[in-house]
Amino acid sequence: MRHYIYDLLLENGISENVAKYLNMLALLLALLILAFVIDFITKRVLWRISSGIAKRTKTNFDDILIANKLPRNVAHIIPLIILIDFVPQVFSDFDLVEVIIEKTLKVVAILLTLRILRSLLHSIRDYLKTLPQYKDKPIYSYIQVFMIFMWVLAIFAIFAIITGISFWEFFAGIGTASAIIILVFRDTILGFVASIQVTVNDMVRIGDWITFDKYGADGDVIEITLATVKVQNWDKTITTIPTYGLISDSFKNWRGMSNSGGRRIKRSVIIKASTIKFLTDNEIERFKKIELISDYLNTRSKEILKHNEAIGADKSVLINGRNLTNFGIFRKYLQTYIENHSAINKDMTLMVRQLEQTTQGIPLEIYAFSSDQRWQNYEYIMGDIFDHVLAAVKFFDLEVYELGLPIRND
Prior knowledge:
Blueprint (H helix, E strand, L loop, with lengths): L1 H10 L4 H41 L4 H7 L2 H5 L2 H14 L4 H35 L9 H25 L3 H8 L3 H7 L1 H15 L8 E4 L4 E8 L3 E6 L4 E5 L2 H4 L3 E2 L1 H6 L2 E9 L9 H7 L3 H21 L14 H14 L11 E4 L7 E9 L4 H18 L18
Antiparallel strand pairs: 1-2, 1-5, 2-3, 3-4, 6-8, 7-8
Helix pairs in contact: 1-2, 2-3, 2-5, 3-6, 5-6, 6-7, 7-8
Protein name: Mechanosensing system component YbdG
Subcellular location: Cell inner membrane
Organism: Winogradskyella wandonensis
């Protein structure tokens, strides 16, 4: 074919030099048309075969392969092989062009291999994400590491092809520039090491709620890659955190709370110290009408009376002997109220405690866990509890501290 066109041109009076160029262009056009037709046919055949197999199988892995265009990328292999084989025939009279085209096609072959490999790895990633045991694992990080390694090898191979040096000689020469390579890929190396530590130590999973004050992150982890961790904050913004930041800085992972069956309530009200007092018998009788502490007051009053009689306490002065205080009774009331609250997890720590006095007053803290961990419901439960606490204070002759504003005399 090559000589036929060339000879035909010479017979028609075309000069030898022009005939070479016209012969090359004719053969190149024929080769490109052939490659295009074969590529089109191969894509159609592979697509029909893969689609037919995907419909018959129960697994969805083959569907994912098609979605990631693996058959389509594989279809390019045959036309590329044909182009590489026939290039010497087309450019036989143009040695320099032949070398350039051959090297270009070999580079394209390397890039096509990487593309096929990427489609396969992405298909594996997407398939593993459908399995419960791999859903929260940073699979993409390992794929990125492998692809970076393959890209480095591909770049070495491409430079070896372009320069004409053998791959292993070129690879050995690169060793002298290893310090520069490490500097260039510093973040990638740090991210790789960090992703391994994060996975091995199970520090973070996809779906975990984390709080990272340094980067302003407060929300769910939606993606873990080699270089970054993406967190969708509660306001729906996305915060990107360097993967190595998870091991170099401190952050809070709320997974333990999510798995525990409760969400902590730790809030206090500040009681004015000047409103705390010993209780008289009449006041105790009045408080006995409060149902949650009625039994407690009956029992406790008898114990105190018995003790005071035993020691001969002079109760004409209220401070003598043992006494009940409105603050202590209020603390017992809140303890009983929390213990009977339907939204509180009774299997976890539950207490009402008095904290150290401050300049504003005495903090009375409720420490408990709500059984519902969802944020909206948790806030409602906590608000409901403290609505009751603030409303109940006055029934015990106590007052909550409020910062007073100075009166202006305009």
